[in-house]
Write a structure and sequence with these properties.
Elements (H helix, E strand, L loop, with lengths): L10 H4 L2 H7 L1 H10 L7 H12 L11 H16 L11 H15 L3 H13 L8 H5 L1 H8 L7 H14 L18 E3 H8 L3 H12 L3 H4 L4 E3 H12 L1 E3 H8 L3 H9 L6 E2 L5 E4 H12 L10 E3 H8 L3 H10 L6 E3 L8 E4 L15 E2 H8 L3 H10 L4 E5 L6 E5 L1 H10 E3 H8 L3 H10 L14 E3 H5 L5 H10 L5
Helix pairs in contact: 5-6, 5-9, 7-10, 12-14, 15-16, 16-19, 20-21
Amino acid sequence: MLRTLPPAGHSHEAYDFASQALRHWSFIEATASEGTVLPPTRYESYVRDRIRKGEQDDWLRDLGLTALNGACLSLGAAIDGCRGKIANSLVEPEAHQLAELGFSYLAGGPDRLSRALHLLHEESKSDRPYFSTDLGPFYDWLHEVQDDPTLRDILTKTRDHIFETYPVPLDKDVLGQTPPREIWLTIEEARKRSGFGAVFLKKLLGHLEGISPDEAMKRTDIRVSELSRVLSFWSGLMNLSQAANELSIRPEQVKALMRLGVLAQVQLTSALRYARREEVHTLLQRIESLPDAPDEDGFMPLRAFCRSKGTPLVQVVADLMSGALDGQLRRGKGTGVHAIEVCDQALAVRDELHLDRDLTLAEAAKFLRISIISIRKLRDAGYLVAINKLNPDTNHIKTFVTRESIAAFQAHYATLGQVASHRKVAPIHLARQLDRAEVEPVSCNGDLVRVYEKQAVMGAGKPPADLIIERFENGDGQ
């Protein structure tokens, strides 16, 4: 409890503390008798025990009382958010609170001090954290008393924390010592050493750590070990052109192999894709292990086989890796995937296209055995449903026909090509026969599209159109 003494008669009397105390002694005694005695804090109890009983059996036993007070007060001020050096004119209640706060961490031992230092780093509001700013008054005080041998343990713990948490140049003196080795690098220094751009380097780190791009972009420092890991990961990647050169194919075909799952796709930015070098080499080794029998009868070079069968090259490579063409492949004289020779009877009974996904306009035309122009007319007339998708490689919009609309279309309608294939006749002859039989195609906003009601041309039994067509085929019709 604080009380103010009555004012002195003259200014010089106010400075005579002893006279003032004697003059108002009764007032002081009355105040003392009315005051409430507060229990000592944990810090005050520790200091009293040190005074009365000497050193305690803990890691602070070597500290003098002055050093102990400075350590507790400065650490408490740093945790409390004070900045700059601790002023000597702190009022007593505030100083006691800060000292108690700092002692609550120091009394817990080295691990508890380490927790306090990590807490200060985590609460840093700077985009580029720096140890002297984060540790604030505590570092300022330690820097002033770093020659005190009794503070050896606290100095060592703090210094180790700084070296393990912040990028410090090897020639930088921190509390009397330089870093024993390089642990952290700034992004700028890592960028110079790796040759990557700062943004790309952060995205590589984010990919390896499995964190979102936004979190990765907040990185300001990188461990030396992390940079080594990034460089090792990067050396194991190939861009599309490099992979295409290794396999002797086009970059578009490398992307197709990725879509089929033959090669894994590593995507670091919105558009750029990479293949794993190890997987490309595994594919080449698989080709190298094929039976060596170039120019063997019944086998064709890969390119010639694909052209004759209308089969995508990447599908043959996918079947090679899956084992679907075991016994039907040989190793020829070409380079890359073109060293493959394929049995001319391979894939003879396989469908070239399956309705297991949305199809491009060209694929839909091939699947329905009709022209792309007719596909567009069917779309415009509402028989087929088209959607637009963003191509992640080029950021261009591409149109697809939904597989649901194709399935619904096939349930009710048949194209001229499908009917001709079903009847095993030439489409041009079938078209003339259907016209003579007066089988009308469906209406497409006034445009002619060779699409018919399925019941009329391919229904169960003998549809009327079939009976008339059979008469023409037998030579009985006009």
